[in-house]
Specification:
Layout: H1 5-14, E1 17-18, E2 20-26, E3 31-37, E4 41-44, E5 49-55, H2 61-67, E6 69-74, H3 80-85, E7 100-101, E8 108-109, E9 115-127, E10 130-142, E11 149-151, E12 154-156
Antiparallel strand pairs: 1-11, 2-3, 2-6, 4-5, 5-10, 6-9, 7-8, 9-10, 11-12
Bound molecules: flavin mononucleotide (FMN).
């Protein structure tokens, strides 16, 4: 390994990121697979693509990939409790009541999120112990508010300088 694990973790701690919840319904909308991510980014304007990275050993990997569609909710600063909830190990099933179905694709979204993005899966790239999931944005909504950010293992929000 070219660098130590500790150095790699230090890089991660130095990279501030917006916090999102990625989610997909399981089966006939009887359950939800969901996880907290800080790897969500917009990727392409035309066509409109977004992406995030997901650990393929995690419980939510398979149901999200098999669903072929997913919702991304960019959290508000006031939604830290949801980030913490979906960063705990799941069994592939989360509480349905934390989500509302999107109007376009009926993917699970978090109410009052700063942005809600409904995606169909466009591409899946296996990369190391993660996969990069590229989504085609089929519908989206944004609202004014403050983002939830993660930096140096702590949650915070944005302050302009
Ligand atoms: C702020 C934050 C950001 C995270 N970002 C990611 C990420 O981008 N990709 C990922 O696979 N896990 C990420 N995680 C870890 C997952 O949320 C965590 O492993 C979760 O338990 C996975 O759910 P699962 O067990 O249902 O798959 C992050 C955790 C935190 C606290």
């Amino acid at each position: 390994m070219p660098i130590t694990g500790e150095m790699y973790r230090d890089i991660g701690r130095s990279a501030a990121g917006a916090v999102s919840v990625v989610a997909a319904y399981v089966g006939e909308e009887t359950g939800v697979a969901a996880l907290t991510v800080s790897s969500f980014v917009t990727l392409s304007f035309d066509p409109p693509l977004v992406m995030f990275a997901i650990q393929h050993a995690g419980a939510s990997f398979r149901p999200i990939v098999e669903s072929r569609r997913f919702g991304v909710s960019l959290l508000q600063a006031s939604q830290k409790h949801l980030a913490e909830r979906f960063a705990t190990k799941g069994s592939g099933q989360r509480d349905l009541r934390d989500f509302v179905p999107g109007e376009a694709l009926r993917v699970p979204l978090i109410a009052d999120a700063l942005a809600q993005v409904e995606c169909s899966t466009h591409q899946l790239v296996m990369s190391g112990d993660h996969a990069i999931v590229v989504g085609l944005v089929e519908a989206a909504r944004t609202r004014p508010g403050q983002p939830l950010l993660y930096f140096d293992r702590r949650y915070g929000s944005f302050a302009a300088i």
